[in-house]
Amino acid sequence: MGRVTVQFLGSGDAFGSGGRFQTCFLVRSEPARFLIDCGASSLIAMKRFGVDPGELDMILVSHLHGDHFAGVPFVVIEQDVLVKRTRPLVVAGPPGTMQRVIEAMEVMFPESSRVQRRFPLEIVEFEPERRRALGALTVTPYLVQHPCGAPPLALRIECDGRVIAYSGDTVWTASLIDAARAADLFIAEAYTSQPKSRIHMDLATLVTHLGEISAKRLILTHMSAEMLARSGSLPYECAEDGKSVEI
To answer: How far apart are CA 240 and CA 219, in angstroms?
Structure first.
């Protein structure tokens, strides 16, 4: 097994609580460089932290809310128009990803989805609970509960002998146990401290299930202003923009 690092380029919620960038995690290993989610602010975050989008092989998307996928058009257009990229880029997400990416590109940059690009762009749509090989990765998506106009997913990602699990946005649901079981790293939403939302995870509920999951390392992300105010006193590791960890 080689060295696998995860850098939290964006760990914030949809509304920039705490001045944080929207969700975007960079994973680097010897065989692959990829993003987990790519919120609208992700290209800015990459530039802020000195990350070259040209190194990316793939972008994995958990669900189709703008703070998790709307950075894709910016990356694609920059790589084509400014960088003149020639090597392929894969975008993989839930059913409906192709249509939503095209719609987003057309809303923000009319006709941009129809140009002849210099590089191959492949959009892959996952089938829930079906394990799929994508280059050097193997990804298993699990259905979670978060209304977004398309099936929302938690992702279990096998990369260079490690397992990274990501909850996506969701209330607690039993599928997270399979998604994150014994993972080397479980990145979990903890939007609030107590149950307050019908669409987001709270820390109190998550904690009651950690024994069933038995992940080797837990990092909390996508925290509201209320949770960010508590983060320094929590007995759990929390994501911060720019933070890098090795697994």
So the answer is: 10
Q: How far apart (Å, rounded) are the C-alpha atoms in residues 208 and 34? A: 31
Q: Return the bridge partners of 123, or none.
A: 91
For residue 57, give Cα distances in angstroms to 30, 89, 109, 240: 12, 5, 23, 24
| Side-by-side strand order, sheet with 218-221 | 132-134, 137-143, 153-159, 162-166, 185-189, 218-221, 237-238
Average pLDDT, the chain: 97
> Which domains are delineated in the chain?
5-235 (3.60.15.10)
Over residues 157-178, the pLDDT tens digits come to: 999 999 999 999 999 999 999 9
Instruction: Note the Cα 220 to chain centre separation in Å.
Output: 13
At 170, list the tokens.
Answer: 């969701």
List CB contacts of 162: < 8 A, sequence separation 6 or more. 1, 4, 29, 184, 185, 247
The predicted-structure confidence for 101-154, as pLDDT tens digits, reads as follows: 999 999 999 999 999 999 999 999 999 999 999 999 999 999 999 999 999 999
